[in-house]
Amino acid sequence: LWPLSRELYPKQFLPLMGDRSLLQDTLSRIDGVPDIGAPIIVCNEEHRFLAAESARQLGITPAAIALEPVGRNTAPALTLASLMIPQATKGSAAEDPVMLVMPADHLIEDVEVFRTAVSRGATLADSGTIVTFGIEPDAPETGYGYIRKGEHISGEGESGPGHYRASAFVEKPEPVDAQRMVDAGEYLWNSGIFMVKASIWLQLLGRFRSDILEACRSAHDQSRWDGDFYRPEDKIFSSCPSDSIDYAVMERVATDSLDAPMCVVVPLETGWSDLGAWSTIWSRGEQDADGNVIRGDVYARGMKNSLIFGEHRLVTAVGLEDIIVVETADAVLVTHMDSVQGVKDLVGQLKDEGRTEQINHRRVHRPWGFYETIDAGAHFRVKRLEINPGAALSLQTHEYRAEHWVVVEGTAKVTRGDEEFLLAENQSTYVPVGMKHRLENPGTVPVEIIEVQTGSYLEEDDIVRFEDRYNRHKDD
Question: Where on the phi/psi map is residue 157: left (φ > 0), alpha (ψ -120 to 50), or beta?
């Protein structure tokens, strides 16, 4: 979903289908499910403050936020969560709890039906069954995995559509195979959502991928807690093999002749989508009479079946059909609806060429708020900073740059060398090269500051931190 989704600000943190981000929708989805505990969030270390802030805005306190130093796919991520449950829940969870595993980039339209299915799945999983959730396919999608339905286990008298033995897991198929599976009526899309006891997951992983289990156990044994963040040992976890939940365990359980727990699939009729491409955002979005999905300051004339997102300026489009246009502060995407899968290759090219537009937006989020670059030249950079109430930047120095601060809204507390003072609106100060300094917001409303940097080197890694309430590293 580039250019809205970036490496350091991925789609899980974007409000693509409403006012809340996809992660927030995922966290809210479990509200009201009986006997469910506080969530454990597993994310990349780079995204820890975004994840924490997403939960805070909902009034949710996670049991823990587990930080992967590098991504190793879903099987190691789930294994970390399984191993850390006793510490994360501080003994408040059941001795061998059922885990509800949810990717944070899904759209589920009928949340009540989802909660009912989860409650039913919990009963099955508590008895030792592995429960997956499948979606009735309405098209031969090649971007999804599939589950083949086996024996129909539950009777018609039970509430809901019943469940089936999962007889096979099929990874993303070729178009011909996808059409064949849809025509057969024996396959469901694999939602990636499932329920299993922690002990059973660890048992199965030990049988099929003992190398992953061993690496995760070692990383867990040497883990540490950093406030609410759980950190497995970096080098050990980074050496862990990468594999998905489906490849590592689920596909093998479905075909295993040994005495493995039963794996069942529960049909999930909730209006589900894996929001992985702009064409999906268009198909699930609110369309006007001409089939267009429009957001932002957009003027469209004679457009049909198109998606047009304007984020920072006026966007105009005339006389086109089946087109995607996405505008951000530093990049614009224009593509035909049939070519959206090529966006991934485009982003790969940007990365190979060292472009920064695939890494972050012009607005960069920090645990204290955000900054965005307004202008820049060879020896200057102008930024707009917004500092959240009660937040503070680190106490720091710069070796190569000086900074000029002008408060345009709110009141800031300034540390400048040995001085501490308040700056109100329209007041300013200057921080020479090498002087210790810090900005804080002691008030109850955000503080907005214009910062003018001057010097021979203006990159973010020119920071020496002396104190930081967020325990950040040099350029974090």
Answer: alpha
